[in-house]
């Protein structure tokens, strides 16, 4: 593995490691750049710290024929001379760090529109290898590419590959090795900076000269399956209804396949508790047995039972995203989003938030307009992420008939869209956008089973890695608050435990940062401990009960009881904790018993009100931190958190009180 660069060192001192070549991987969005990077580097990639560059970059160190090579995955860009944040990031990287080789990834089927990028790299004098991905699609469209002639004209190697079928990678690796074997001295970053500022733009004449005789485009591409499908799916009248119908059918499939698998997971966790957990903990004291079995294992088992449903959702999302349909959705929604102060990209990023809110918030960097970026960041936390999905499926399965489940879940997605649009309408004057909307519509393609599995497994792996620490710390905290009577809190001990919990959740590097810059967090911790030790009420009841009673006047109008109030408070840390915390709050280890208890204590109207609140209120701490990082504004971050809380309370209260007026509660 490559070492992480020390952020404390000066930029000038950061050069290539002795004997290690640096290769930058760049290309336009949606050309398979990250797929190629992952194939070359395997599982060895990690997020590196690059001082002087405004975003973290993925990097990996691999051995090619006995030589160590450092690969760096740069953000996708359309123009090396552009002014979007991602384009400035790439420029800043080249102006700061010496590079031995650049891999320029292009879509072979769109080579006439993308050839400008390698020409810009050539004009800077950086050694490069051009990799034309999706060569199978180019051949299907009747596009003929003579890579040898093209290589001669570009004066750099050209390789045809297919990410879908895995062809051409061996040749690409061989070309990379050959280029790195040339002992060139990397261009000095200061010299490169002057060249980027000085060299003229690439003209259309230069592009035609490069493509002439090396690339043969058909006079008119035959009417493809993509064109036939677009005639229906992009229809001005039926296009949008078909899109929402497809999303609903996806939920229906997830429901039909995921719920039976959930029963299997329940049986496995129940067997594990009976055969392993119970015998191991039988000799422990009542406190520790309750903490380990009812607290930690009960919460984790409840969440684990929903992994089959989550992975089914991820697999379906992989199919829809990789098919090219989401780009069409952005195109169709652009005119509508424009009325609400946004554009089609905002809609696509909102949909991407179904998996996790963090990646689409980071994805707003491609927007040149800061106003559009901030408005889009403001709406993304309303997207129903996978963490919320586990909560909603758990509650829907407990309180609603299974035949109604997909419709109830679909209605929550519609609510997220509605609130996002209303936010745009309310805020578009404060965040005025004048940036034009441009998007590539890739051909429809059905991903291979391998692509679907790798994409879905990757999403699930990321979800579990991010969630495990949060869930473990969260359910442990909920159990302690639910079982310790008021008056037993040790303020000093709790302040010592806080950094340990932070390390457990986020990794020990975060503890170091926490201790270095913990003024605000320590103040919040002191306030939290003071509140715990001064809650009104009977000292013999648990902290959790007193917390629920303390917030009851605020959430009672929304029909949310104190048990669910406690769960919502822990949901501030991470929504994944909510389901596990319910198992801990009710002191039950069997997920079915938790669902039965919920069905006996709250009505379906209360459950739906709770889900609305959970959908709209403050996102997890990791998302809040990402909002702070991307917006670079504490004020905007506070606005985002407060704004979501207000929406959650208003919508859930109006829904519950309206249902009561109609006699439905």
Short description:
By secondary structure, this protein is α/β, with parallel strands linked by helices.
Protein model, in words:
With 665 residues, the protein is of the alpha/beta class. The chain is 62% helix and 7% strand. The protein has helices at 33-41, 85-96, 111-114, 116-124, 135-140, 147-154, 169-181, 189-198, 204-211, 225-233, 239-281, 286-304, 307-322, 325-339, 344-352, 358-363, 370-379, 386-399, 405-427, 449-483, 491-506, 508-516, 519-533, 543-555, 562-571, 577-585, 591-601, 604-616, 621-631, 634-661; strands at 21-27, 46-48, 57-64, 67-73, 101-107, 128-133, 144-145, 158-160, 215-216. The strands form two sheets. The chain has a seven-stranded mixed β-sheet, sandwiched between helices. Helix 12 (286-304) packs antiparallel against helix 20 and helix 17 runs antiparallel to helix 19.
Key descriptive features of the protein:
665 residues; alpha/beta; seven-stranded mixed sheet; two-stranded antiparallel sheet; globular
Regions with pLDDT < 50 over 5+ consecutive residues?
Answer: 1-15
So what's the overall shape? globular
Question: Total helix count?
Answer: 30
The major pleated sheet works out as: 7 strands, mixed
The SS-based structural class is alpha/beta
Fold blueprint:
Blueprint: E1 21-27, H1 33-41, E2 46-48, E3 57-64, E4 67-73, H2 85-96, E5 101-107, H3 111-114, H4 116-124, E6 128-133, H5 135-140, E7 144-145, H6 147-154, E8 158-160, H7 169-181, H8 189-198, H9 204-211, E9 215-216, H10 225-233, H11 239-281, H12 286-304, H13 307-322, H14 325-339, H15 344-352, H16 358-363, H17 370-379, H18 386-399, H19 405-427, H20 449-483, H21 491-506, H22 508-516, H23 519-533, H24 543-555, H25 562-571, H26 577-585, H27 591-601, H28 604-616, H29 621-631, H30 634-661
Helix pairs in contact: 2-8, 11-12, 11-13, 11-19, 12-20, 12-26, 13-20, 14-15, 17-19, 18-27, 18-28, 19-28, 20-21, 20-26, 21-22, 21-23, 24-25, 25-26, 28-30, 29-30
